Amino acid sequence: MKRPKPISPRVHGMLDYSTAAAVAAAPRIMDLPAPASRLFETLAGGYTALSAVTDYPLSVRRMVPFKGHGAAELAIGLALPAMPWLLGFADNRAARNLCFGLTALTLVVAALTDWNGAGARGRRPRSSRSKLAR
Predict the structure, then answer these.
(1) C-alpha triplet 82, 87, 92: angle, nearest 5°
(2) pLDDT tens string for the chain (134 positions)?
(3) pTM summary value
(4) Which sequence spans correspond to the domains of the chain?
(5) What angle do CA 43, 49, 50 make, to 5 degrees?
(6) DSSP state string for 88-121
(7) CB–CB of 48/20 below 8 Å?
(8) In the beta sheet, which residues pair with residue 117?
(9) What's the DSSP call for residue 7?
(10) What gap in Å lies between CA 52 and CA 8, rounded to an integer?
């Protein structure tokens, strides 16, 4: 039997926007080196843009399927641990650990998100609708 996933599409959206805000603020709060600052500012913009066009309740325009959103987040999360070395800021402990922390957060949220849940497109799942509504 599958365990229920506690993160609905609506809650996932709230997490996306709040994570984007925190990632955008991190370079100034943590006094990160320029390459790390550019990475995190780009990530924040990308997270915000992706969230704005994802097919879930908090989007501005629903263009990207929710599962596609998840695939994009997973790809970003898997690439993040290599970024400190690829971009030359691996010696900065705070920036390096922020990459690792964002990877962990991404994987945990992905594992706990109900990717098939009610809330995408603001509708209830088909099984809960009456036969007349089909």
Answers:
(1) 85
(2) 778 899 999 999 999 999 999 999 999 999 999 999 999 999 999 999 999 999 999 999 999 999 999 999 999 999 999 999 999 999 999 999 999 999 999 999 999 999 997 555 544 444 444 444 44
(3) 0.83
(4) 9-114
(5) 90
(6) T-TT-HHHHHHHHHHHHHHHHHHHHB-TT-EEEE
(7) yes
(8) none
(9) B
(10) 17
